[in-house]
Amino acid sequence: MDIYYKNICNSCIMSASATPSAQSIAATEQEQAILSFWVQVSDLLGYPRSVGQIFGLIFLSEPPLSADDLVQRLGISRSGAGQGLKALQDIGAIKTAHQLASRKEHFQLQTDLGVLVKLLLNARILPKLEELAQQRKALDLAVRADGPAHLVQRFDQLERWKGKTGPLVELLKSFSR
Question: For residue 107, what is the enclosing H or E element?
């Protein structure tokens, strides 16, 4: 496992004792795997590694966390934490949680899957699909105007694929409403 994750997780759960218990070692390995998982999900969605780390740490934490908590535990900059938190709020992955004894803003998971899916689709996936569709159309027109025959055939194939995937895109759009 990545040494970076090991350091993050050790700072999350290790007590002051020099020799960790078997339970804390297992939890550390488990936390490392969870952080790694969320970094991979973040990468898949086109977000920076730090966004996955921030979400992973919030996922792991029972109490809500502040930006200062994230800076301390992940070793990222304050501006990096703020940007990551904003990105996660924009897609509905986290929400603010008010702490009575603190003026700091704290964050917790968005547990409503419907809200999360809707915001993620509208903020990230559907706009990207639309952008790619526009690029494909422009390239198709350019190839048809002045391109080799084999590329025209390939864009014809893409058009057939578009027809087959249309229902899937419509299904995604229905979740975004």
Answer: strand 106-109
CB burial of 95-125 (b: ≥16 within 10 Å; e: otherwise) equals beeeeeeeeeebbbbbeeeeebbbbbbbbbb
* Residue range 123-133: mean pLDDT, rounded: 90
Please name the residue that has the structure tokens 């970076």: 4
Separation between Cα atoms, residue 92 and residue 110, nearest integer Å: 7
3-109 folds as Arc Repressor Mutant, subunit A (1.10.10)
Q: What pLDDT is recorded for position 15?
A: 33
Give the Cα separation of 74 and 111 in Å (integer): 23
CA torsion sign, 37 to 54 to 9 to 96? negative
Total-model pTM: 0.70
In whole angstroms, give the CA distance from residue 101 to residue 35. Answer: 29
Tell whether the model's pLDDT for residue 173 goes beyond 90: no
Can you tell me the distance from the alpha carbon of 21 to that of 61, in angstroms, rounded to the nearest whole number? Answer: 20
pLDDT band at 42 (very low <50, low <70, confident <90, very high): very high
C-alpha span between 90 and 124 (Å, rounded): 10
